[in-house]
Design goal:
Helices cover about 75% and strands about 0% of the residues. It is mainly alpha-helical. The protein has one domain. Helix 1 runs antiparallel to helix 2 and helix 1 packs antiparallel against helix 3.
Length: about 150
């Protein structure tokens, strides 16, 4: 993602040499206030761009992984169906066919319930919180507090 930049982005004044003004420079209060507001606006915009980028990357990564999981799940369902059919036929040699089918169905239902519970727990633990953006905002607040003292 290419970010747009203004000629003054990253600078606190219009000095060509990039030096910061000393306390003895005479600037008007309204000029200083205007500069602070413009820098705060740029900081907020940068933080929003960072949050968007971070969330977009996380969602893209989850989407790519989900394709593989979905395809694997479909194949696993077919394999499981054939295995369970074999188990039903094997049990049918020892008990009534209907009872062997019910027994296998109950066993699969219990396993399915366990997997669903584990999956729900893992989904609750997932976080799409933009950690880098929050950390950057906290640093900006600390910096602003030191500048205002």
């Amino acid at each position: 993602m290419k970010e747009q930049s203004s000629p003054n982005q990253g600078h606190f004044n219009d000095d060509v040499d990039g030096t910061y003004p000393s306390k003895s420079d005479s600037r008007s209060f309204s000029g200083i206030l205007h500069e602070i507001v413009s820098h705060l606006t740029e900081i907020i915009r940068s933080e929003v761009r960072l949050a968007r980028t971070e969330i977009r990357e996380d969602v893209r990564q989850i989407a790519k992984a989900s394709v593989f999981v979905a395809f694997g799940a479909v194949l696993a369902l077919y394999a499981l169906g054939f295995i369970l059919l074999g188990v039903v036929y094997a049990l049918a040699t020892r008990m009534a066919p209907w009872l062997s089918a019910v027994s296998v169905g109950v066993g699969v239902g219990i396993v399915a319930a366990i997997f669903c519970q584990v999956g729900r727990t893992k989904i609750k633990q997932a976080s799409l919180k933009p950690d880098k953006t929050i950390q950057s905002l906290e640093e900006n607040v600390r910096w602003m507090k030191t500048q205002t003292k």
